[in-house]
């Protein structure tokens, strides 16, 4: 065989390999989502048959996104088979993405559209009017529902149904993995209850109302927040109010999500510490999968939150 023929054969083999890869890739269910938590659970259920892409990193916060959407998000969504969103107005920018993508599979009445909040008992639903134009968020209640691990079962069910609709041929495979995910959650829930025993009745403060579901599940008492309302920047008066509350209640820890600056929590902590004569800690906690390197999947996120809070609140 001469050199030209060998090159031709190599080229043909390459073309064949690419064609095979193309066929294999066609079977992959492409998922786009506003949150790493959904991507993590979608991977649990879809394993190697889904490719889940989150528009945000775990240390970011989709609910405070007020910028324009990126064209790359629209391109990805135009090619997606399923779209998973937080709902409850936490990712309203997703409407712009969906509109731009012109992809009926992931439009609100499409097979692959999933609102993760469906079936969740939402807490802190505002009784009065809220004003999104002033920056208020949580306008349909608290959207951080995945920080109660019991809610992960509901979300997994919502995602399973979306994947089944998007790829009916793989439905049995998805159902089997979803059963396995639920079984591992059922095994983890009593373990987390046990690990979180020391948190019951412990007082702390937070930057934003991120932790309400977690606090309710494990009996933590959040005595106050840096933000006067979800999404509203604290004023000096808010800082004084929180300082008074923490000093009065004996709270010795302020937690904040990675996206929130520790500047105000640290100022509050210094003042409470000065008044109380006791150390007051400020701690960054992940609010989503991937928010810190240790929170590599949903189970690791809950493990990390309980372990870190237990350690910081021990002896307070
Ligand atoms: Zn929030």
- Rg, Cα atoms, Å: 23 Å
Instruction: Specify the biggest β-sheet.
Output: 4 strands, parallel
Q: What name does CATH use for the topology of the largest domain?
A: Rossmann fold
Basic shape? globular
CATH superfamily of the largest domain: Nitrogenase molybdenum iron protein domain
Mean pLDDT: 93
Gap from first CA to last CA: 80 Å
Domains, number? 2
CATH C-level category of the largest domain: Alpha Beta
β-strand percent reads 5-15%
- For the largest beta sheet, what order do the strands appear in spatially? 2-1-3-4
Distinct ligands, ions and cofactors found in the model:
zinc ion
What letter string, H or E per element, gives the SSE order? HEHEHEHEHHEHEHEHEH
Secondary-structure class: alpha/beta
**DSSP, total strands:** 8
Number of helices: 10
CATH hierarchy: architecture of the largest domain = 3-Layer(aba) Sandwich
Summarize the structure.
This protein has 316 residues and is of the alpha/beta class.
Keywords:
single chain, alpha/beta, four-stranded parallel beta sheet, 11% strand, 2 domains, 10 helices, binds zinc ion, Rossmann fold, 316 residues
Blueprint (SSEs and pairs):
Elements: H1 3-26, E1 29-33, H2 36-46, E2 50-54, H3 71-78, E3 82-85, H4 93-101, E4 113-115, H5 151-166, H6 171-195, E5 203-206, H7 212-218, E6 221-225, H8 236-249, E7 253-256, H9 263-276, E8 281-284, H10 298-313
Parallel strand pairs: 1-2, 1-3, 3-4, 5-6, 5-7, 7-8
Helix pairs in contact: 2-5, 2-6, 3-4, 5-6, 6-10, 8-9
The structure holds zinc ion.
Zinc ion binds at residues 63, 137-138, 144, 208-210, 230.
């Amino acid at each position: 065989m001469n050199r030209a023929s060998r090159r031709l054969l190599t080229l043909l083999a390459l073309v064949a390999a690419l064609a095979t890869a193309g066929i294999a890739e066609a079977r992959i269910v492409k998922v786009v989502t506003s949150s790493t938590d959904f991507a993590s659970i979608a991977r649990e259920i879809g394993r190697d048959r889904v490719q889940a892409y989150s528009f945000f990193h775990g240390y970011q916060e989709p609910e405070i996104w007020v910028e324009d959407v990126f064209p790359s998000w629209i391109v990805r969504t135009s090619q997606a088979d399923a779209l998973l969103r937080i709902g409850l107005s936490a990712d309203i920018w997703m409407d712009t993405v969906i509109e731009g993508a012109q992809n009926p599979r992931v439009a609100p009445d499409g097979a692959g559209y999933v609102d993760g909040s469906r079936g969740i008992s939402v807490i802190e639903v505002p009784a009065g009017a809220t004003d999104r134009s002033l920056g208020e968020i949580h306008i349909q209640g608290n959207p951080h529902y995945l920080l109660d691990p019991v809610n992960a079962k509901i979300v997994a069910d919502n995602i399973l149904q979306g994947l089944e609709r998007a790829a009916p041929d793989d439905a049995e495979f998805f159902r089997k993995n979803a059963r396995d995910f639920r079984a591992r959650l059922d095994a983890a829930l009593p373990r987390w209850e046990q690990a979180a025993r020391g948190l019951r009745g412990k007082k702390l403060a937070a930057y934003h109302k991120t932790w309400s579901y977690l606090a309710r599940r494990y009996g933590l008492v959040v005595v106050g927040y840096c933000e006067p309302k979800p999404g509203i920047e604290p004023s000096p008066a808010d800082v004084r109010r929180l300082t008074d509350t923490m000093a009065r209640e004996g709270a010795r820890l302020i937690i904040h999500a990675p996206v929130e600056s520790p500047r105000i929590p640290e100022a509050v902590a210094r003042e409470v510490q000065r008044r109380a004569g006791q150390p007051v800690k400020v701690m960054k906690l992940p609010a989503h999968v991937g928010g810190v390197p240790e929170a590599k999947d949903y189970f690791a996120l809950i493990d990390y939150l309980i372990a870190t809070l237990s350690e910081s609140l021990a002896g307070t």
